[in-house]
Specification:
alpha/beta
């Protein structure tokens, strides 16, 4: 157990790690999981990683789930990193790589966060989960809740694509369609969650989804063999809302060993997403990638 406590991202109020928490009860901001990294680095060595399971659980020492039976897995994480030379040449980028997150268990990176959120909910004895979602997060919650034998209550705008709704229903989730936007769905979860005893796994309303997402950074560090290509390096990702970018600001150099601070810092500083890949490709404008 390398988790020391949970800590409010804004006011630094501390919380016990083995209890159910949503947001900071003092200021209402998200809670972050804090680790004893010295202890973690004593247990996890870079040279041990290649022999480990090809999922995000290969970094278990820096993830919050203590008991192995609660580490739910549908094959999430450890997605391929592919050098895309032709697209790179078109955009004028010598070293362009794509990490294919569509190969996650539920078809998107959302599997990472919901894997951790549901695993921790199981560890803490939660039985019912709820989420507002217009797509991939709902599918991921439904799949991991099914894996855990837990109830998933999903609130979707009525115009959500049919495929997303069917994915949830086929894995046994309770789906409610709302005449409105995703914010209206969130309001419905907030209104009912106490009386229904739901654990709200909305984005940044519980401490653990971000713990799953940070493994993208760990994987990039490992796949680049802890050293990035020469020159300015930037990470970009598809996003509609800039706040999602915050989820990768955890330094992968915090991961293990900590023997080479310079190299760790290099990787950590590079993981600052600055642009939307969709836009980048549409515009053919590599200036979006410049520091
Ligand atoms: Zn606070």
């Amino acid at each position: 157990m390398n988790v020391t406590h949970l800590e409010c991202a804004k006011c630094a109020e501390r919380y016990e790690p083995d209890q159910i928490h949503q947001l900071c009860t003092v200021c209402g901001k998200p809670l972050l999981v804090r680790y004893n990294l010295g202890q973690a680095s004593a247990e996890l060595k870079r040279h041990d990683l290649p022999a480990r399971v090809p999922t995000l659980w290969r970094y278990r020492e820096v993830l919050p789930v203590v008991h192995a039976e609660n580490r739910l897995s549908l094959g999430e994480g450890w997605t391929p990193l592919t050098r895309v030379s032709n697209l790179g040449a078109r955009l004028g980028l010598e070293n362009l790589f794509v990490k294919d997150e569509s190969l996650n268990a539920t078809g998107s990176f959302k599997a990472r966060g919901l894997c951790l959120a549901v695993s921790m909910a199981k560890e803490l004895g939660v039985r019912k989960l709820a989420i507002p979602s217009a797509g991939n997060a709902a599918g991921a919650l439904a799949a991991y809740a099914a894996r855990a034998g837990m109830e998933a209550h999903i609130f979707m705008p009525r115009d959500t694509p049919l495929a997303n709704r069917l994915e949830c229903e086929m894995t046994g989730a309770h789906v409610t369609l709302i005449d409105g936007l995703i914010t209206d769905c969130g309001a419905e979860v907030a209104r009912r969650k106490d009386s229904e005893r739901w654990f709200d796994v909305s984005t940044l309303k519980e401490p653990y989804r971000i713990e799953g997402k940070k493994t993208m950074g760990y994987e990039l560090a490992e796949q680049f063999e802890w050293e990035l290509p020469d020159g300015p390096t930037r990470l970009t990702r598809p996003t509609r809302r800039s706040r999602k970018n915050a989820q990768l600001h955890i330094r992968p150099g915090d991961l293990v060993d900590r023997g080479d601070e310079r190299r760790d810092a290099q990787i950590g500083h590079a993981l600052v997403p600055i642009a939307c890949l969709d836009e980048l490709v549409k515009r053919g404008d590599h200036r979006l990638l410049e520091p």
